Amino acid sequence: MICAVLYAESFLLLDQQLQAALNQGSEIIEIRLDAISNLNVEHLSNLIKKYNDTDIILTLRSEWKSTEIDPPIEGRQSLLKKIINLKPKFLDLEFPLDMHLISSLPSETTPVITALDFEGMAKIALDPLLDLVLKINKKLIVKIAATPNTVNDLRQIWRWAKILKKNKLDYVVLGMGQLGQITRVKYKELGNVWTYGRFDKKEGEPFLPGMLFIEELMKSNPISSYHLANIGDISENDALRTIYSELFKVSKIDGIFMNLPIQTSPELDQMMLWFEDGLLDGINITKPWQVDILDKISIKDSSADIMGAANCITYTKDGLKAYNTQIEGLKRSLEPFSLKRIKRVYIDGTERIAKAVVEVLKDKVETIVIRDELFSSGNDLVDHYDTLMSSVDSYSDNYDLIVNCNKPVKGFENVVMLPRTILENAKLFFDPMSKLNIKSPLKKFAEKNSIRYIGGYQFFFNTALANFELWTKRSIPNSSINSDLFDPFDDEIDFGFMLNY
User: Fold this and answer.
1) Which member of 218, 301, 399, 438 has the lowest number of beta carbons within 10 Å of its beta carbon?
2) Are strands 319-323 and 299-300 parallel, antiparallel or unpaired?
3) Strand 389-390 and strand 367-371: pairing?
4) On the CB side of 103, how many CA atoms lie within 13 Å of its CA?
5) 61-112 per-position pLDDT tens digit
6) Helix, strand, coil % (nearest 5) of the chain?
């Protein structure tokens, strides 16, 4: 079951939110009453009666963290006693604060005994909570909501669920925060009675990291759905989630994509063990783990060996397999352009993405020139491809393709760092690096001089598409994607998280 949490300053707004949540598919409703300054019990009774056929949990929080913890509500205990007199189907009671009220609950009311820790796990005292609930001769539900800050904390949530299940209790064990969102998706595996989903971006319970929408949870529910995740240091809501949500939509398969921040190498080891056990169906790797992950995966595709890093992990019958789909992503990005017209290539920089460029073009062009102060024997790129030429040894200004593989220099983000004569003679720019919340200066130059341009976003999208096809075994033509959906991201993202710098 999916539970939506309502939160509003009036019963009229609560009524509207309740209808919206039910329309979206919520099967149980939690009404947070602590936003109402003057709680009218009669109005509450009328709302409950109006939705008599709906399972409603009434909650009056003693404190709540959004940006700060609010002080306890004055007169909260007396309000709870008035709410008890309404004989609600479910009533949330906080452990240990409200335990004295259990004996006054009518037989019609099922208590949801809740232990909370918004900051971490330390406030959850399972043993005394378990001792108490096992002595209560009444149907009840135990709810534990804590914030896992490490993978070990995540393991603790699974341990709590196992203990509660062993004691034959009904329970909801929830991980808050970005890392905890996997517990909302895997609630059935945890044995939870329900999970929590948002029905609106702005309405309802104040948003905290890790919250997911009802629609996302419904699509992650079926046995046939795909559970995918990014492991790395990126924000919870970013272009990756937008892209993969659209790919699920156009491929007409159910699934969800999550961002899981992993902080240490041992945590990464644990996550890989869980992945091998079937926790996830595919993993995207971003910084800082694209190189380190190779030491933790036994089966490697040639693309990962060539690039010296992996950005995609798949589950196979023989074990986990590492890929680097940036090579395939670049191939797809170049497909709309005639490679036959490209004879001479100029690459500015030797960041790892330069390897993908050379690998794709080495047998298709006549000359590849590299400009970089590190161009010398001992450079990984140069040692691997001995046919490359240093810009120091090249005196030509005529290059068909210009590739920007240098990280933007702080203070010079708006400056094109290449000679104007080289730029003016080019037929095509490939610019994966210069994305720092501004339109790339190379793109501005391309538009002004009518030169064809491949931005970082096209490359980024095609790389993500290659990942998706490896995970799902579905081939998706670019023509099926609504490109307008991604316009807000174009040239407004620093793609360093994908390129691992």
Assistant:
1) 438
2) parallel
3) parallel
4) 3
5) 886 544 444 555 567 888 899 999 999 999 999 999 899 999 999 999 999 9
6) 40, 20, 40
